[in-house]
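Sample entry (131 residues):
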Amino acid sequence: MTDAIPSNSAESIFSVDMLLKYMGNDDKALAVVSKIVRDAVAPRMAPIELAATALREQRLADAGKILHTLRGSIGTLGAKRLVTASLSLEKAIAEQHTELIPTLLTALESEYQLVLRNADDWLQRNMPQGV
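Predicted structure, serialized as tokens:
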């Protein structure tokens, strides 16, 4: 039903295989998971852009909240690499290691773009019948 996306890392970029399995791994589960994926990636780069703006404006708490929300919603898609990158940035923000933030934000942005591409590819391969 699904295609695994190979990763050069021990952590995955995107994988909803376990979510599908827990939901029954049938056509109904595929339809529900497809909706979850579509909804999760619908904002596209907006969360990263909002966080970057908050960081530029020195609204560190706001940036941390945006990133925490992003991590929660995208983390359900098996995006372990994104979760790791987000946690690193959130920690730097919380500890006010402002010298680390630009590099960590760039890394998170790259991971998020990979998630979006992989999610789009998955949706194309697994479009439920009748959608």
